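Quick review question:
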């Protein structure tokens, strides 16, 4: 894949993942009960609502902002792709291990497959982004765009 194709693919991937993360996080922040039901957890009081809002809302919003930052700066592109790779990888690995321990469910398998696809694409794009950053070797990566 040439540099232009990698650039377009990276930007498209980061934009789609960023939108998914931000939309999910904002939705959860404003409606923790619906997301809690979808996740199979229910807040018992305001403290539980805060936990769902913070963990499934705030953390996911922050992840979305990290991913979006990668659209504007080469150094942040590497950080966004690495964050997506490790974050989705940790979720997927945990989901698979729990399924192996407690039993297989189709919903969790579908989510794990989505997470696996994020891991694979993020890894391939991260590899290309690092190779390109190392190859350029000139200039300040903080001010250069991808």
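Suggested answer, residue by residue:
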């Amino acid at each position: 894949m040439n540099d232009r194709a990698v650039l377009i693919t990276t930007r498209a991937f980061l934009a789609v993942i960023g939108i998914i993360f931000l939309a999910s996080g904002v939705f959860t922040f404003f409606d923790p009960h619906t997301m809690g039901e979808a996740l199979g957890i229910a807040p018992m009081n305001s403290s539980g609502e805060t936990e769902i809002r913070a963990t499934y809302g705030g953390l996911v919003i922050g992840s979305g902002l990290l991913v979006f930052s990668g659209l504007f700066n080469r150094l942040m592109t590497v950080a966004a792709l690495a964050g997506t790779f490790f974050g989705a990888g940790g979720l997927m690995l945990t989901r698979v291990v729990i399924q192996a321990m407690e039993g297989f469910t189709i919903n969790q398998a579908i989510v794990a497959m989505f997470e696996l696809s994020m891991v694979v694409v993020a890894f391939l794009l991260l590899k290309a982004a690092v190779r390109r950053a190392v190859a350029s070797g000139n200039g300040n990566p903080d001010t250069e765009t991808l």
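Why it works: Residues 3-136 form one domain. The mean pLDDT is 89.
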